[in-house]
């Protein structure tokens, strides 16, 4: 419990500092999460999951992330939860790949599954705490002006993703598969949008108005 509130305080502090950065909030926030996580690990690399994973089938790691991301994206489009899409509107595909698929996935998994989850007492409860932390971090979207239905939808699905990533962290002894699953979720979000666009075109003969 105390570690959860500490993690949320660290995230809030990093977010506040990142807002002042001339290099952009998101890149700075993610960098701060990595640097603080590495400092808190204090060289205990193996204990905190900085090892090559054991017993890994990479497709089985990736597939749940892709599927979950696609479902989250499809649902947001079908129910017109437009907040996140509005935030992503300024990203080109290369920027999305670099910042969302790679940089965000890497930093959040080092923070949530590397430092936070690894430091909790062993047992099923730390999977739930890890999921709760990851979902809670996305409540910060309220401060970015994202509408309430969109935020609640995102928190729901990021909590599900957090659980899936926490599970694979536990079963493999490494946060690296969690990073792959997390990146898969973000890629799946794009795939879900493509499926929605194709389905909409087939059923209506028009392209959807995505804002």
First-to-last CA distance: 41 Å
Query: What global shape is seen?
Result: globular
Radius of gyration: 17 Å
Q: Count up the helices.
A: 8
Catalogue the unreliable spans: none
**Roughly what percent helix?**
over 70%
Class by SSE composition:
mainly alpha
Overall pLDDT level: 92
Q: Helices and strands, in N-to-C order?
A: HHHHHHHH
- Describe the sheet with the most strands: none
Number of strands: 0
Can you tell me the number of structural domains? Answer: 1
- The fraction of residues assigned to DSSP E strands is under 5%
Task: Give the tags.
mainly alpha
Write the layout of secondary structure elements.
Elements: H1 2-18, H2 25-41, H3 58-78, H4 83-88, H5 93-118, H6 125-137, H7 148-172, H8 176-204
How would you describe the overall organization of this protein?
The relative contact order is 0.17. The chain contains eight helices and no strands. It has helices at residues 2-18, 25-41, 58-78, 83-88, 93-118, 125-137, 148-172, 176-204. It is mainly α and 211 residues long. The chain has one domain (2-204). The protein is 73% helix and 0% strand.
How would you briefly describe this protein structure?
The protein has 211 residues and is an all-alpha fold. Helix content is 73%, strand content 0%.
């Amino acid at each position: 419990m105390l570690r959860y509130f500490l993690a949320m305080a660290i995230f809030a502090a990093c977010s506040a500092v990142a807002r002042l950065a001339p290099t952009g909030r998101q890149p700075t926030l993610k960098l701060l999460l990595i640097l603080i996580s590495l400092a808190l690990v204090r060289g205990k690399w193996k204990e905190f999951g900085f090892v090559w994973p054991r017993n890994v089938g990479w497709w089985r790691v990736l597939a749940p992330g892709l599927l979950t991301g696609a479902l989250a994206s499809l649902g947001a489009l079908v129910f017109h939860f437009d907040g996140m899409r509005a935030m992503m509107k300024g990203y080109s595909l290369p920027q999305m790949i670099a910042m969302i698929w790679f940089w965000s996935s890497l930093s959040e998994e080092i923070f949530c599954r590397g430092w936070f989850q690894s430091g909790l007492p062993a047992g099923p409860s730390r999977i739930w705490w890890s999921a709760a932390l990851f979902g809670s971090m996305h409540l910060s979207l309220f401060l970015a002006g994202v509408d309430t239905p969109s935020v609640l939808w995102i928190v729901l699905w990021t909590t599900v993703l957090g659980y899936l990533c926490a599970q694979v962290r536990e079963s493999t002894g490494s946060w690296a598969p969690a990073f792959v699953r997390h990146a898969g979720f973000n890629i799946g979000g794009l795939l879900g949008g493509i499926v929605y666009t194709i389905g909409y075109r087939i059923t209506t003969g028009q392209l959807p108005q995505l804002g």
